[in-house]
Amino acid sequence: MELRVPTRKDEGDWRRLWTAYLDFYETKVPEEVYRTTWERIHSGGEFEPKCMLAVVKTQPVGLVHYLFHRTCWSPANNCYLQDLYVEPDLRGTGLGRVLIEEVKREANAVGVTNVYWMTHETNATARKLYDRVARRTGFIEYDLS
């Protein structure tokens, strides 16, 4: 297994994995969001989304999206782990943990110590992993959309 930043050649696999993630949450995004996100991933901007692919035998099988952002609570940025996906037949193999650890390494490399994320309360499989690798904060999300 290797972890790597996607190249332009990986767009099809990235779309496949991200679509599967969105399908899991029973949602869709328009084509414009796919195009914009893909371009942002490759822009290199400090606050643009980042992506890492988990690859097994040359086949991308997992992805993580994350981004750095400012905070009023610290001079250092925060890191929001936005999307984490591993193909269903590889769940429980440690790939999710490896992707989370890589985000933590990437964050630490730029001086960011706070990595956080959310998941849906019904996502029991992911929550088993999250309860082992992170601290549950107790905060409840609200949304104005």
TrEMBL record:
Signal peptide as annotated in the record: none
Domain of life of the source: Bacteria
Record flagged with keyword Transferase: yes
Keyword Manganese: no
Transmembrane segments: none
Keywords for this protein: Acyltransferase, Transferase
Residue span(s) of domain N-acetyltransferase: 1-145
One Pfam family named in its UniProt record: Acetyltransf_1
Protein name per Swiss-Prot or TrEMBL: GNAT family N-acetyltransferase
Organism: Aquibium pacificus
